[in-house]
Predict the 3D structure of the following.
Amino acid sequence: MTAIILFFTLHWFLSLFFHSFFLHRYASHQMYTAKPGWEKTFYFLTWFVQGSSFLVPRAYAVMHRMHHAYSDTEKDPHSPHFFKDIWHMMMHTARIFSGFVTGKDVPDPEFTREYLPVWDKLDKFGHNNITRGLFIAVYIGFYIFFAPSFWWYLLLPVHFFMGPIQGAIVNWFGHKLGYRNYKIEDHSKNTTPWGILLMGELFQNNHHKAKDNANFARKWFEIDLTFLIMRVMHTLRIIQLKPVHLQKKTSLPEKP
Ligand SMILES: [Zn+2]
Ligand SMILES: [Zn+2]
């Protein structure tokens, strides 16, 4: 049992960290710079920890930039306000994502103007049913070996679809439930303390107010774990946070 809990927790948080740190804060928003060797390392680790649910960074980033430009309007690729449930929103997002990955759909140049990390070989290898299937086989194998009873197998689908599940939780609840620090045009919200399980990503309202600020927390009780790790990585010179983000608080909450 301990092995399964450990495996699930590690997979959840490692996937989430690279989702937030690399796909979101680097590929989509360029909140920091990294030397090419480090960029490749983060890219590789994102693929490895997401495994069967690897999200190709360039497609993710384009889609996410669209989310900010059209937040909670009909052109938003995943606004919860246009779908009857989280499942339909996920399916719609998956269709847009897949169109960009395969090249069937060409994104508006506005969303490709900024730098996009691309590693063609790894994208092709990772976004491939055989590779995805192998990861799934490893997850199942681990459960066969360590799960004490059948009920634990119910966790397996979360491993299979880890990346999209975490994305859907953030996109659905982050634009539906919680409180707001800022009155802005979209429906973005902040959630705490549960937001801690999503490593800062559920502070959507703070993030939409200042999309280039690497720190998603504003108030004393808001903790952005990903950003705290990024500060350590900056100190160790693994990444270089863009100077504006070194400010502890970039803006004070506005009066509602
Ligand atoms: Zn959002
Ligand atoms: Zn964003």
Remarks:
- The first helix runs from residue 2 to 28.
- The longest strand covers residues 32-33.
- The chain has ten helices and two strands.
